[in-house]
Amino acid sequence: MSYRSRIKGIGAYLPPRVVTNAELSTMMETTNEWIVERTGIEERRWVEPGEGGSEMAAKASKEAMEKAGVEAKDIDMLIYATLSPDYNFPGGGVFTQRLLGLREIPCYDIRQQCTGFIYGLAMADAFIRSGLYKNILVIGSEVHSTGLDISTRGRDVAVLFGDGAGAVVVGRADDDKHLIMSTHLHADGAEAEILWTEAPASRNHPRITEADMAAGKHYPAMQGKKVFKHAVTRMPQAIMEGMIANGLKLDDVDMVIPHQANLRINQFVAKMIGLPEHKMHNNIQRTGNTTAATIPICMHEAIGLGKIKPGDLVCLVAFGAGLTWASAFLRY
Ligand code: UT7
């Protein structure tokens, strides 16, 4: 018996606190004009102190489960993609499991940063295809706001990121009208340090020093121009790879949901592959970059706006730290 998988339900959660570019410009030397011109971002959401990624994940998951028509007892596995777990260990997966009242099922935490959601989707697809599980929660959830250098020193990164969560229930497909068609995953560690957080690091003893903190090594650091160049190369490659594998033409694709790192990157990618503007949905303007959560949050919004309808052919594509990149093609 061979099985295929589909997305049965999707949910998203954004914390209520809106942080505008104007508010950021009271905390560091930056301007609304700089941020909008370079990134397209107008505002992002930040959690209130005490709210963790697992709480946001549980809220997004509840919606996804409701839409999928499944209950806690029906979930066979949980995959939680994040670079910002609530604690060093255990991972956010088990905290989310507890909040949702799931059975004693396997709970994975995976990394892969901005590409984490598609990596999780690929894993869920493989477990469903194997016949081992029927319903798998795939979550992307991030709290960035508590880990950014909110000062002029950190402004190149701090203005980019936001908090939020998205989740899907991946289940067995009954036909080829609603189907995960393909996933293609990649990584290349050759330039891992161009986007990373250096400390705390278990290879050092102690893992973090006062000098590290004074130097801001516990904040994410990025060589933006290098990352930008990789993103606009790898994302078109990942899209083309999936199109070739599925024998698709660009005309066949109804909607592309790209990772939301920078509106300019996504516009560039669309131009490179000749994709008309209305076939790509972006929401970074209002969310900032929520790394592993961007794709389910953006897809959830596109569905809510009627831009993705049941049966539509959707391409998901991501690029991020690692470096990692991936695409998924599906019939929603
Ligand atoms: O999700 C993971 C993947 N991430 C990405 O794909 C991000 C890729 N990179 C980018 O999107 C862009 O590189 C950024 C938006 C991060 C930066 O844009 P950029 O055009 O590469 O700017 P830059 O870093 O070269 O900085 C240009 C100038 C610098 O000043 P000088 O040296 O020219 O005087 C920066 O100090 O802009 C300055 N700057 C800022 N000014 C105002 C940097 N950040 C800010 C800021 N506000 N927030």
Description:
By secondary structure, this protein is α/β, with parallel strands linked by helices. It has two domains: 5-175, Peroxisomal Thiolase, Chain A, domain 1, CATH 3.40.47.10; 180-331, Thiolase/Chalcone synthase (Peroxisomal Thiolase, Chain A, domain 1). It contains eleven helices and 13 strands. It has helices at residues 21-24, 32-39, 53-68, 92-100, 116-129, 155-158, 210-214, 224-246, 263-273, 284-287, 294-304, and strands at residues 5-13, 17-20, 43-46, 77-81, 107-110, 135-142, 164-172, 179-187, 195-196, 221-222, 255-258, 313-320, 324-331. The strands form four sheets. It has a five-stranded mixed β-sheet with strand order 1-7-6-4-5, with helices on both faces. It has a four-stranded mixed β-sheet with strand order 8-13-12-11, with helices on both faces. Strands 2-3 form a two-stranded antiparallel ribbon. Strand 12 and strand 13 (324-331) form a beta hairpin. Helix 8 packs across helix 9 (263-273). The radius of gyration is 19 Å and the shape is globular. The two termini are 23 Å apart. 49% of the residues are buried. The chain binds oxa(dethia)-CoA.
The CATH superfamily of the largest domain is identified as Thiolase/Chalcone synthase
Q: List SSEs in N-to-C order.
A: EEHHEHEHEHEHEEEHEHEHHHEE
Shape: globular
Number of strands: 13
Proportion of helical residues: 25-40%
Number of helix segments?
11
Given as residue ranges, the uncertain stretches (5+ residues, pLDDT < 50) are: none
Amount of beta strand: 15-25%
The averaged pLDDT comes out at 97
> Could you please say which CATH topology of the largest domain applies here?
Peroxisomal Thiolase, Chain A, domain 1
